[in-house]
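Please check the following for our workbook:

***
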Amino acid sequence: MRVVVKVGTSTLTHSTGHLNIRHIETLCKVLSDLKNAGHEVILVSSGAIGMGVGKLSLKERPSDMPTKQAAAAVGQCELMYTYDRLFSEYNHTVAQILLTGEDMNHADRYENFRNTLHRLLELSALPIINENDTVSTAEISLGDNDSLGALVAIGADADLLILLTDIDGLYTDDPRKDPEAKLIPVVEEITPEILALAGGKGSALGTGGMSTKLHAAKACKEKGISTVIANGADPAILYDILEGNPAGTLIRGE
């Protein structure tokens, strides 16, 4: 199975902005094991700005664009160094691809991206993709990488997109406020009523929330790609998802 896994800032870092070592080590171990089992894995990773904040010892996430871009420049180096080191321990080679919205909207650039991505998979490399926050302010303003995850899944002709986040999936109401809220295990159609359940608020560290995830799932669904939204607190949940066991919310592809 060809699977795209998107992880957000809240999965990779502590609230201080520093790397969550346990989470990222477990993530790399699980993804390596999935590759060993024969799956083709593509990782879409947030976290550059968050890691840059920690690396630069900033007291808080910056609000001005130049400092955000500076933090991204520092953090991207740290992020890829960490991934390269951890995946190398399991004898897997990683490749970095940085994209902007312009790349995805330009026909020639998008085709070049697709060709590179498919060739990397043929060479058994593990592509790690992030938005190029150091040069494009639009991506920083938009939020986290849910939409990018969908674009990558479509470009890669993936079988499945997995969006790991800080909540168990789509609920009938906000579970942080309503103890009676119920997890919705399967979504067959993304209706206006389903979209309304997402609300508009983002997660603690990123600015992307459930709404961006459902819109990403909708784009994938139209291309026949299923999406799972699940809690990334324990990356071992990926085993359950790929083995077909109930985990998170499944939005079926058409």
